[in-house]
Amino acid sequence: MTRKVAIVGVGMQLFEFRKKETVEEMIFDVTRNALENSQLSKEDIDAVVYGSAADAFCGIHNSDKVAIDASGGILKPTMRNSTSGSTAISTPILGYTHVASGLFDLVMVICYEKMSENLAAQAVFSTCYDETFVRPLGLNVPIQCGLEARAYLHRYGLTERQMAKVSVKNRGNAMSNPYAQLPMKLTVHDVMSSPYLSWPVKRLDTSPVTDGARAVVFASEDVARELTDDPVWVKGVGRGADSFWFMGRRNNDLGRLDYAYLAAKQAYDMAGIQNPMAEIDYAEVYDPFTYKEMQHCEALGLCPEGGAGRMIDEGISLKEGALPVNASGGLQGEGNPIGAGMSRLCWCYLQIKGQAGACQVPKEVNTAVCNGWGGMFQYNAVMVIGRNS
Amino acid sequence: MENRVCIVGIGFVESEPSVLGLSHKELLFHSTRKALDDAGLERKDIGGAITSSYDFLEGRSLSNQYSLDSIGGVMKPCDLRLGEDGIYTLFAGYMEVMTDPSKFVVVASVQKASDMGGPEGSTYPKLVLASMEPVFSRPVCSSIPNVMGIEAVLAAMEARAFMERTGLTEEQLAKVAVKNLNNNNSGTKKAGADLGDVLNSEMLSWPIRRLMKAKETDAACTLILGSERKVRSMTKPMVFIRGIGWCSDQSHLAFRPQGVARETKGAASQAYKMAGVQHPDKEIDLGEISDWYAHRELMHCEALGFCSAEEMGSRIADAAFEKAGALPINVSGGLLGRGNAIGTSGLLRVAQVALQIRGQANGYQVPGVGVGLAHSWSGIPVACAGVTVLSKW
After folding, report:
1. Which of chain A's ends, N or C, has fewer CB atoms near its CB within 10 Å?
2. Rounded to two decimals, what is the model's pTM?
3. Read out DSSP for B241-295?
4. Homologous superfamily of domain range A5-119+209-227
């Protein structure tokens, strides 16, 4: 019997290239913030769920286990999830499942990443690759994204200029975000003249390496109604992944993310949403690279397939636009501590509640969608949240 | 109750210390194929897939991505990867099925640490330092002069604390090893060992001797879960998951009481509450629990409520935990007997109990198992454990 589940509070903290705080301290801060914002104490929490993409970044095996105390998890059930970049949303989905299954009433979900504890994040990323077939090719994330971006632009006739507009939008939006690492006032020319990491992806199309954490508190319906008159419900969840192996993928066209469309469909079917362009008020989509925001907007049905270029050209996704995307600045502007991309969910919640501060969009927000993406470019997780209509 | 969760398929590949002939991916494929055949299902029937692995043991980041193809999870609606002991995949799978009873969920775990370090158990001890909090704990622990590494020393510390509290002796600890080594019917050890073999084996750090510590091995295990109403039409014997629980104690060794498994007690109390078990020593017919070290089997028996510290000596003397005893523990051989595929062994414990309940534990079946308990512990230096109570009805 699936219970209704609500979000009753979120925990935020500044994203920075290198935080002075240790993994434990980051987690403590964000958990404390979430408890305060939900008006709860750590004794109220029944279970803790952690999400972090790769222990190799911070150099601690099972890094969540050093933060049991810091997260209020002592002698409680704790579980750690790790699905690379999509950890950002698959972890809160796991938290949601803890409550929806009927086992727990109040669950604290903490997503974190400390990417600064190594000499080069790209070197750590390379430890993901299969050592026999893929590593000898000399791939890295910018190169892979260059290939994917090229396939995408080619398939739908989109341009680098349109990608650049996403960067300008998001980094500009980040100037209103007190937790952002890279607020920047840019022009399209600035982005277009930034150096290529791997054509057509340029430095200013790319999110930074970041330390940071986020927390979200999920509650069962009964408990949520005790805590607030205005619960924000989890309406739909979806997850999908293609094969890890490039040589065996279901979709061999990197331009179209079949697994992302699959995840979005699950989430929308569950939420009873048939026309996302009309029914979604706000979105925070995963944008580690500018073209990814475009691909994800299409996969999430926020614009027609191939229509993301027009979406940005016509200002639809601007903060004051008809369907604002990433008014927080997204990963481009706020920062990309891989697991803590759960920030996308946090900002959807804050926008719905009218608590997004200077990032608040002018239109009314009742239903929002967010997604996370990652792995060997083949995982996607989607969550739709909103008020009862 | 219509909506209980059942185990409908079981498959595993247990192995010698290093499996040279099969890759990591192939190991997992074979165990999943077996589980599907056992359940009478095909890949198209799979509605969700969950795995768990430890990056640093696998030697690659995002390690559990590699498993997706092998478990039939490609382009499936649920795809979840945990960084926990394999038994946690059962818990996450249980919650998935409770949330959406229309799906069959595959839960799986594979361990091929031999790719990293070879068969002599050399991989995990190196990992223990990497698991520790780096500011205060690691510097202290890395300076301890023991050629076997910090793991043996930490195991010895907790064993000594346990022995002091309970009055148990080295010999009584060794008897656990003798029991499990003799219970083993296939696996990494030569068949059987006696007390002398154990007590004369190489000293790692007093009182931990070589034969009191499970050797690392490779293995893969897959279970398929479904809701009761979905499996009702299937003709095979069902195994019901009556209770689950998992629990983490404090992160830091310096603050944690030694020689007592609070994490196991916490996990058990949740599982027993769900299962309606009030007197585990009487209501549980059989247990497969973590005997990563001989002393740990006893610590967990106490924490699981199988016997008190005072009773332990007499229970050991009465052979209460032997195959013919009142509460058989680790008749499969456990980790000491079969080897420890770190992480995957947790899910294998569940598979072993499920086989006993089905009456399919060929060669080591205990008669009349109606309610069984599977337990796993995530290993030094963390304090995390999971428990499940399984039953025939």
Report:
1. C
2. 0.96
3. EEEEEEEE--S-GGGSPSS--HHHHHHHHHHHHHHT-S-HHHH--EEE---SBHH
4. Thiolase/Chalcone synthase (3.40.47.10)
